[in-house]
Amino acid sequence: MSRRSLDASLAGAGPPSLSAPCPAIALAIVDFAAVVLAGLACRGLNPAGHAAHTPREVLVVVATGTLALSLLHRRGLSGQGWHPARGMEAVLCLAHAFALLLLVLLFWEQAMTFRPGSAHAVPADSIPATNRNWLFTWATSAPLALLLARAPVEAALTHAPPRPVARRAVVVGNAASARRLARVLAQPDRAGPRVEIAGALILTPRGMPPLESLPGWPRLDTLRAARRLVEASEVDLLLIALPEAASRSIAAILRIMAGVSLDIWLAPDIARLYEAPARLSSVVGLPFLHLQERPMAGFAAVGKRAEDLLIGLSLLVLAAPLMLGIALAVRLSSPGPALFVQPRRGLNRRIIRVRKFRTMRAEAADDRGARQAVANDDRVTPLGRFLRRTSLDELPQLLNVVEGSMSLVGPRPHALGTAAAGQPFAEAAADYASRHRVKPGMTGWAQVCGWRGETDTVEKLRRRVEHDLFYITHWSLGFDLRILALTLRTVIRGEGV
Fold this sequence. Notes:
This protein has helices spanning 3-11, 21-45, 55-74, 87-113, 129-159, 175-186, 223-232, 247-256, 299-333, 382-390, 397-403, 425-428, 445-448, 458-473, 477-492; strands at 167-174, 195-203, 237-241, 263-266, 280-283, 286-292, 339-345, 351-357, 407-409, 419-420, 423-424, 441-443. The strands form four sheets. A six-stranded mixed β-sheet has the order 2-1-3-4-6-5. A two-stranded antiparallel ribbon has the order 7-8. The protein has a two-stranded parallel sheet with strand order 9-12. A hairpin with a 2-residue loop joins strand 10 and strand 11. The radius of gyration is 28 Å and the shape is flat. The chain is an alpha/beta fold. The longest helix is centred in the middle third of the chain and has 35 residues, at 299-333.
């Protein structure tokens, strides 16, 4: 996009056709309903159909609708803009779903008709003809039902103003771009989600006095002040409005904001300067390019939290008697409290209080972690060595997981004063701050891959950070379960720190 076209867009040119969350949800419901209703109708109209649907048939229909919706979403067909030009892609997605359904039903029939003691299962050709008729009519009518149901809904959504979705944002830009952005944001009839500006940093040339903030926008004096605002509040969006010549300023913004979890959007005329996915979002009709996205947001964040609560609470209940016994043993084995509580940095670099069973003598406690624990550390009690080797000293962190300051799986939090070869962790590894974009974890990918224990060299720290960033980039619930299984193996083998 040229500078002139960007200015035109900022000044109020027509916004591009971009999907909003509510229309996407509405279309997803329509897609799901079309496939499911077509399946139920075809089953009822089948010559050998039943007057009422069995639970198994309803389950097959609902599962197939869910699978079709998932495939449409993965191919980018769950939003607006594909009808009818990309209708064939939707048909292929439905064909894929029905092919998988047929394989599942064939396997089911084989399993149900297998008789113990017989030489082999009943051949696949014995699947009832009614099933084949039903599947054939359903597979051919579902695409047509989908296209016919989508057409009027998409037409209505195109002409209806999208439902506004409020977000809290920080703006960083020069005076001219910020003023244009302010004019656009102030227009009540613009399309797209509305935003509330929590603060604005107006950049001025070196030697020039700082400008006052724009009307209605709280003034920020430095980028670090903007980061502190993100850390202390619910701000989740940073809007950058700068010309192409300001690439150094944009690089500085990204560097300072690397340690906080928020979306950073950039006006698209300087997209060629960055190797970033060219994904656009609209704020009151104005396009912005995504430079950084929260690793876990929306349904991903809900799923992650549900995982922590479900597994974390279960483990906490099961481990409660053991934890009480360990706490009593710690109190009896050496003077001092049973728990050692240490401040560490969590999500968005906020200070959290991490709980562990005390494994060192009380007088040797080091809240800032300036001296890392090493093998045969003279500060560790005999019981503490056992707890560290079996990782049982980490059990109280289940309380951190349940309260929400930590997760079961994530980058391990470090004490505030830890250093590698005399260098603070944040200085020794360039990407160290990016670990704070997600909640810290009781265990992590780095730990199960062998990068645990003392981090006394810069190389060890960098390898640990590499594994943490790999986990953040490739996170999934399945990946979490794999790490938890590997952690259990490590604990059983007694390979803890």
